[in-house]
Amino acid sequence: MTTKKKGNREDYIFRNKINETLVKLPGQLNGGGFNIENLNQCEIKIFDYSSQILVDDCKDCIFIIGPVQNSIFFRNCSACKIAVICSQFRLSNCKDLKIKIFTSTDPAIEDSDDLEFGPYNVFYPLLDQQIIKGDIDLAFNYYRQVFDHTPSTDESKKHFRFCDISQAQVLQINVEGVEAKDPPNQQILAALYSFEIYAENSSDMSMPVAKTREDALIQEAALMNQKNLMQDDAFVELSKEENQLNLNAFLNKDAKVE
User: Fold this and answer.
1) With 80 as the cut, is the pLDDT of residue 19 above it?
2) What is the pLDDT of residues 106-161, one digit of tens each?
3) Are 141 and 102 in contact (CB under 8 A)?
4) What is the distance between the alpha carbons of residues 207 and 177, in angstroms, rounded to a whole number?
5) What is the mean pLDDT of the chain?
6) Is 209 helix (H, G, I), strand (E, B) or coil?
7) Cβ neighbours of residue 247 closer than 8 Å, sequence gap 6 or more
């Protein structure tokens, strides 16, 4: 008779840290839930898929979070930068957040202010496989369909805004000791990084004017040689020819990325 090994609770939580880099590698969560509590000036890198994540009382942190099968919920957080793929994104009592997400449902915010939303823009090894394991629906990114449960009575003072994606590019992160045996799934990449462009003068801002897959990838999926995630100067303008080279190198199975 075999006894199932119990997981250590401390393996599924980051808490009470200042100025540290906290990492979970592929396979360390393997679809389990995770909690993050009371972090200050930390970098949190979860290179794995999870069932759900709860984040409380974090300040001045950078979050890079792999696919979350269900919901990720931020509470009482401020001055943070966030990149995550999830089925549901929720915020409560948060302020001054820059958020790059792919979400399968409308983001929900409550009692929060000074929020900037944009499309998910990160790639790391095995991400495409984790999206499959996490059963993430990539049919459409609802990052612009923000639902504010506590809206401002003044229409000119909304609690959220959207970043300019005209120069957006995908940022590649190399994870030490982690390499994919196969090239990334091209269909997943096309769905994940085909950002939607919204008509500036449309009376109905919920109606997207979508680019073609090729144009979206050429313009926005320039992910080669980008080392630092979510920095204010990370969105740099590249020519169409430069982006095309990066795109070809990324999608070509025989290409070698220096």
Assistant:
1) yes
2) 999 999 999 999 999 899 999 999 999 999 999 889 999 999 999 888 777 889 99
3) yes
4) 43
5) 78
6) strand
7) 217, 218, 221, 222
Answer whether 0.85 is exceeded by the pTM.
no
Biggest CA-to-CA distance, the chain: 68
How far apart, in Å, are the Cα atoms of 173 and each of 177, 181, 209? 12, 17, 30
pLDDT at position 7, please?
65
What separation in angstroms does the CA of 12 have from each of 134, 184, 249?
17, 28, 36
Distances (CA, A) of 217 to 17, 196, 212, 213, 222: 38, 11, 9, 6, 8
Domains and CATH numbers, the chain: 13-251 (2.160.20.70)
Among residues 7, 157, 137, 146, which one has the least CA distance to residue 70? 137
Centre a 10 Å sphere on the Cβ of residue 232 and count the other Cβ atoms it contains: 7
| Residue linked to tokens 């070809």 | 248
Is residue 6 predicted with pLDDT exceeding 60?
no
- Full DSSP string of 153-204: SSTTS-SEEE---TT---EE-PPTT---SS---HHHHHHHH-PEEEPTT-S-
C-alpha atoms less than 13 angstroms from C-alpha of 37 in its C-beta half-sphere: 7
Query: Angle at Cα 32 formed by Cα 29 and Cα 33, nearest 5°?
Result: 110
Instruction: Compute φ and ψ for 241, nearest 5 degrees.
Output: -65, -40
CB 25 within 8 A of CB 50: no
